[in-house]
Amino acid sequence: MSRDAKINREDAQIEIVLHGMVGGAEFAWGLREIERACRKDSVVSVVWDFRKADLSQLNFEVIQGSVEDWPALALGEDTRIAAVAGNQLDEILLRLWREAGQHRDRRQRMVFLDIEEARIWAAQK
What we know:
Blueprint: E1 2-8, E2 13-21, H1 24-41, E3 45-54, H2 60-68, E4 80-85, H3 88-102, E5 108-112, H4 115-123
Parallel strand pairs: 2-3, 3-4, 4-5
Antiparallel strand pairs: 1-2
Helix pairs in contact: 1-2, 2-3
């Protein structure tokens, strides 16, 4: 498992990159990085990069937990959150995450297979 958080100051965007097995602990790490970046770097959009991640251990509890932790973050209701899947099966799992989030708050979430499309979409105001 490897992970990284990249800040694009020009677009006020954070990119959370996860490789290997992803579960609740990895989501929690990403959420902490996002919150830190909001306070330190005035980040206003998020891209989760799961292209090289193994999402096979994701279940409803992990998905729901990651969504429920969002209100604690310093992100506004107009924030765009993009998730990039590595394959079509992962895309389906991430769509469940998107749907769960849409019932929790007004932040826009979208799932992509292309990282550049995700970055562009998330940066739009």
